[in-house]
Amino acid sequence: MLSRRIFLSLGLTAVCSQFSFGTSAKKKLLILIEGAGDFQAVAKVLEKSLNHLPPNMELHRFHWSHGYLRIVADQTDLAHISENGEKLASSIRMVQKRNPDTEINIIAHSAGTSVALAGVSLLNENSIERLILLAPSVSKDYPIIPAISAVKDGVHVFYSHKDTFILGPILKFTKTADLRKCQNAAGRYGFTPATRNRDEELLVATKLKQYAWKTDDASIGNDGGHYGAYGQPYLDLKVLPLLFNNPQAKITSAIP
Question: The domain 4-254: what is its CATH number?
Answer without folding.
Answer: 3.40.50.1820
